[in-house]
Design brief:
In the C-terminal section; belongs to the class-I pyridoxal-phosphate-dependent aminotransferase family. This is Putative HTH-type transcriptional regulator YjiR. It holds the Pfam family GntR. InterPro entries: Aminotransferase_I/II_large, HTH_trans_reg/aminotransferase, PyrdxlP-dep_Trfase, PyrdxlP-dep_Trfase_major, PyrdxlP-dep_Trfase_small, Tscrpt_reg_HTH_GntR, WH-like_DNA-bd_sf, WH_DNA-bd_sf. One of its GO terms (molecular function) is DNA-binding transcription factor activity. By secondary structure, the protein is α/β, with parallel strands linked by helices. The protein folds into three domains: about 60 residues, Orthogonal Bundle (Arc Repressor Mutant, subunit A), CATH 1.10.10; about 130 residues, Aspartate Aminotransferase, domain 1 (Alpha-Beta Complex), CATH 3.90.1150; about 240 residues, Aspartate Aminotransferase, domain 2, CATH 3.40.640. Helices cover about 40% and strands about 15% of the residues. The protein has 15 helices and 16 strands. The chain has an eight-stranded mixed β-sheet with strand order 4-11-10-9-8-5-6-7, with helices on both faces. Strand 12 and strand 13 form a beta hairpin. The longest helix has 26 residues. The termini are far apart.
Amino acid sequence: MTRYQTLAALLARRIEQGLYRSGERLPSVRILSAEHGVSISTVQQAYHLLEEKQMITPQPRSGYFVSLHKATPPLPAMTRPAQRPVEITQWDAVLDLLNSRQEEDILQMGSGMPDVTQPTLKPLWKIMARLAQKQDPRLLNYDTLQGLPALREQVARLAIDSGCQLSADDIVITTGCHEALSVSVRAVCQPGDIIAVESPAFHGTLQTLRGFGIRVIEIPTDSATGISLEALELAFEQWPVKAIIVVPNINNPLGFIMPEHRKKALLSLAQRYDAAIIEDDVYGELTWEYPRPRSLKSWDLDGRVLLCSSISKTLAPGLRVGWVAPGRYRDRVIHMKYIATGSTATQTQMAVAEFIRQGHYLPHLRRMRQIYQRNYETLNCWVRHYFPCGICVSRPAGGFLMWIELPEPFDAVRLNRTLSESRLQVAVGSLFSASGKYRNCLRLNFALPMDHRAEQALAVLGAAVEHAMAACAVDALPALSTE
């Protein structure tokens, strides 16, 4: 990130936090230059960037002022799911979302797709081309069940940043994080068992549990601090909970980072009730602050945490390369992998291992963190500008997903039908609940380029939301008496 981008990000955070209020004059260019030890041109570039994002407005001979805008929406409140084992639904809606990816003229505003257009991916293309040119027979053969040793070594080295001390032998390569989660669930549970999950939770995880005949207890979750440990303990006392699935670092869909003291408390709770923890860390590398947060696995002393991740969100989902560090469940996980898919594709493993070994991965990560953070700041401004009042919005600490909560009568499923006329689609909140809750919520993706098309789409979405909220308000009015 350049100096002017760093300064712009700092000023944007101060505006978001209310340190500079709507309509308030900002410090002069000369004052900021002296305060931050940067040139006047750097400050001017920073102000120009904030002006482009419509966060500030220049006034001739007066300086720069915070744009007049609506107040920052509050965070979504602690969720309140039914705290009892339930059967998982919503498969048809998930299938509709997945099938719509094939329709190129639909703008997917709520998908979990990263940006795969950046120039930092060019070395990956070259590596894949060189591998193909060599015509190495190994590329067309089965790999071992555990995965390519060279890739496992690189993954173990990357894990150091999250506080983990792993060896290559501790890692099992999978076909994406989805398979890592799948084999982990099958390694620790049987059909009919009960698993506790955050609420809302990733729809892919929920559908995996449905496929294995596992019941779910949705645990209330705070949009800033994560799963309620008090509610989780109560669930342990009332039900034979076999395992917990959590996304503590850059949660999907809420975007929070669980504080360290709560991560340790969660691990202690699992130890007390002898439950496994399946930790989904697929977005952990996309934290905007450095160093990245520690994983639960980094405090795991008895092997009960199965750490799952992949390069699907950091590089490209089409490569289908993931991994799991299964701890005490290693042999069981390898067996489940053999039953499910056997070995993972060899060529993509080699390509990813070489991409990391040559030093391309970390620069690519730094670039994507910067892009997603800037995109979030832009999208956040657009949401404030185009959406009506009365909404709650998550404040992600990384990644590229935003969660929006609308008043309770609102129906995002009906909204999606309206948006289809404009060839737009969001991810409706009910996909992220085992029982179909959160119909009044939606998930947005800001990995998309924040260009004119994206702004127009958000303006259409905001207008549709406002219209739907107004209709809900009318429907809620008491009927006029005819007496």
